[in-house]
Amino acid sequence: MKNYHVSLLALAIGVLSVFGCTPTEEPTPLQDGLGEGEYIPLKELFKDHFPIGAAVTPNHMDSRTPHGRALIEHFNSLVAENVMKPDALQRVKGTYTWTNADRIVQFAKENNMMVRGHTLTWHSQTPDWFFYDENGDLHTPEVAMKQLEEHITAVVSRYKGDVYAWDVVNEAMFDWDPNGQIIYREDSPWYKIMGPAYIDSAFVYARRADPDAKLFYNDYNSIFSWKRNKIFDLVKRLKDNNIPIDGVGLQGHWTVGVSEQDLRTTLDLFRSLGVEIQITELDLSVYLSNDEPGSTIYTDAFNMRQRIAYPMLMKVLLDYSDIITGVTFWGIGDDASWLDTPGRKHFPFLLDEQLQPKPAYFEVQKLIRR
Ligand code: G3I
Questions:
Q1: Is 353 considered catalytic here?
Q2: pLDDT-derived band of residue 30, with 50, 70 and 90 as boundaries?
């Protein structure tokens, strides 16, 4: 447990002023047995509910660095942010590069962490040779499937017993289409070569290579009606056809404006399919819209928004912890996020730029430590 100076009074004023109230009395102190500013590491906090993961790069895999220490302290699951993708593992056909992915798996083993694998089949970060021949023409379905089978078999076999869950297919559904006319991402070379059949095949290859690994379909914007219904139909079709799929990964690239109702409706929908759910890429941006001016300072307004949004979100996830088998942040702390651009930081995590718990962290802690 460590100290972090949080003013409970400031928090009360902040939260109440969001709802247009004026505080008249001091908030009730916590009855959780912790002193002010003391915290329980995330993985301990959620240990009775689900593993807590982080997306990492190989240079984080060093217990002497701040990132390595934060990982060991707070997380019991890792996923490679980039180095298990096809372009990292098999940039050149037939030549596999394992070094970076191996470092992550090794670090996880040394520190009793689980590893999620991301990702086996994707239209992005996949070398052209998977899709095109030397003349630039799309491969036949037979050639493309043979190559995909070889890739999945090699990768899943190498990490058999070490990687407990795979994102077998990533982002295969068309994203923005409120009328539901276009189901699949038709500009994916995988789709162009053979339609949606590649999805089914990828799951079959992965199951053959490691019958014990949990197999996931993973996508973003999956809490919105136009997308979640497509994902629902896909997973239902796969299950009806005895294609081996164990779960759905809901990428959590949300904002502080994320809707509790959207979350609950989505989780209820997938519950009815009888599959596991994992929140695979959680980052809660501080901005309410893309039009909001960017900032490199973590303002009071950002702080207040996250103190409200994060506990709301985590409460929902706790309410569904019978079907949620993992929650993975898409990074470690606010020092680095794929969302950040010059002049516009998103501060999306529970750990700050120094990898210390933020005020929102303490609000989340209260959910469990009351
Ligand atoms: O590896 C090269 C490096 O050699 C080069 O010097 C550098 C210069 O820009 O680029 C490096 O590659 C970058 C790579 O991240 C590794 O840092 C790519 O340009 C960059 O595009 C790539 O971005 C990744 C993105 O996926 C690519 O689609 C992000 O880090 C990663 O967070 C993001 O993750 C995706 C998930 O896989 C799927 N869901 C959405 C999520 C966010 O986009």
A1: no
A2: low
Domain membership of residue 91 as a residue range: 8-16+38-369
- Nearest residue (CA) to ligand 1, atom 34: 81
Check residue 37 and give its pLDDT.
Answer: 84
Domain annotation covers residue 47: yes
Atom from ligand 1 closest to the CA of residue 55: 32
pLDDT at 22: 35
* Domain annotation covers residue 272: yes
59 lines ligand 1 (CB under 6 A): no
pLDDT(238) > 80? yes
Which domain CATH number covers 229?
A: 3.20.20.80
Whether 76 lines ligand 1, by a CB cut-off of 6 Å, is: no
- Assess contact for 148 and 130: CB atoms under 8 A: yes
Query: Is the model more confident about 3 or about 116?
Result: 116
Q: Which atom of ligand 1 is nearest to the CA of 119?
A: 37
**191 phi, psi to nearest 5 deg:** -65, -40
**pLDDT tens, residue by residue, 112-131:** 999 999 999 999 999 999 99
Parallel, antiparallel, or unpaired for β 77-80 and 247-250? unpaired
Closest CA to 152 of 236, 276, 81, 244: 244
Which atom from ligand 1 is nearest to the alpha carbon of 85?
Answer: 37
Instruction: Give residue-wise pLDDT tens across range 53-67.
Output: 999 999 999 999 999
The yes-or-no verdict on residue 12 having pLDDT over 50 is: no
Of the candidates 138, 119, 144, the one whose C-alpha atom is nearest the C-alpha of residue 198 is: 144
pLDDT value at residue 323: 98
Q: What total number of domains does the chain contain? A: 1
- Residue identified by tokens 């001016």 is 293
What average pLDDT does the segment 321-339 reach?
98
- pLDDT band per the 50, 70, 90 thresholds, residue 286: very high
Residue 327 lies in a domain: yes
Is 354 inside any structural domain?
yes
